[in-house]
Design goal:
mainly alpha; rod-shaped; about 260 residues; about 80% helix
Length: about 260
């Protein structure tokens, strides 16, 4: 789904729902023309139950992506704070490591912003590789300086800040890129949508009603929800992207550093 634009997901969903309703309606008309034993009341009850299950799965799926979206926003703030702390504590390092550490942290923030704001997964992958190299270089410098004084509390503070940066980086990758709605949940959701819409069409025919434009509005409503879930579940959602303002503010703060390289 990542390669399909949002409007494509929406159009496919509308078409699928309309087709399912039409299939159910035609099936109901055939049954109604052949026999009068099929009553509206039990059909209505069964259709209502199916729609209830669909509403539950939709709410469950939306809760997953909504909570994950909130978590991604919180992680951006946490990472910006951790990078700010690491940058400030890099003052503890002797020269020339101090200037190199600050330069690396500035480039690290730039890479994060360029990769995320571009919305290009290839650029994100390249930025992750550079971030790994930057973290390794920062860690090597911190270890080399800590070994000169193993009892230094100042070195311990800087290493603690780097650990926090590394941990938050791993969390952002895991939650922002790797955590997705399981395929089984998508299959169940799609199956319930199709069955529920077939049930709606079938009930409409059994009740003796004609086709109505209300079914089109029903298809639009479900399709909007599906499109929203898909957009929130995407690693780099173009229309519902997580704000990177904390990192932008951090970049500005770093640029104003009078002791910068």
């Amino acid at each position: 789904m990542d390669s399909t634009p949002a409007w494509g997901i929406f159009a496919l969903s509308v078409a699928a729902v309309m087709i399912a309703i039409e299939v159910g309606y035609r099936g109901g008309r055939r049954i109604r023309d052949r026999t009068e034993d099929e009553k509206e009341s039990p059909v209505s009850a069964i259709s209502g139950t199916t729609l209830g299950l669909l509403a539950f799965i939709l709410a469950f799926t939306f809760a997953i992506v909504s909570d994950r979206f909130d978590t991604r926003k919180a992680l951006v703030r946490d990472e910006a704070n951790a990078l700010r702390t690491a940058y400030a504590r890099s003052e503890f390092l002797p020269q020339p490591d101090r200037n190199e550490a600050k330069t690396l942290l500035r480039a690290y923030v730039d890479d994060r912003l360029i990769a995320v704001q571009s919305g290009d997964l290839d650029r994100v992958s390249n930025a992750l590789v550079r971030a790994d190299h930057t973290q390794r270089r920062l860690w090597d410098m911190a270890v080399a300086n800590a070994r000169q004084d193993m009892n230094s509390d100042v070195a311990a503070l800087y290493i603690e800040a780097l650990n926090e940066v590394t941990n938050l980086h791993a969390l952002r990758v895991a939650i922002g890129l790797q955590a997705r709605i399981p395929p089984t949940v998508w299959l169940v959701l799609i199956a319930l949508i199709m069955l529920s819409m077939i049930g709606v069409g079938y009930q409409t025919a059994i009740a003796g009603s004609r086709r109505t434009w209300a079914t089109f509005f029903l298809a639009l409503s479900f399709s909007l929800v599906i499109m929203l879930i898909v957009e929130l579940d995407r690693p780099q959602a173009g229309s519902i992207a997580v704000s990177q303002q904390p990192l932008v503010d951090l970049k500005t703060w770093m640029a104003a550093d009078p002791n910068g390289p």
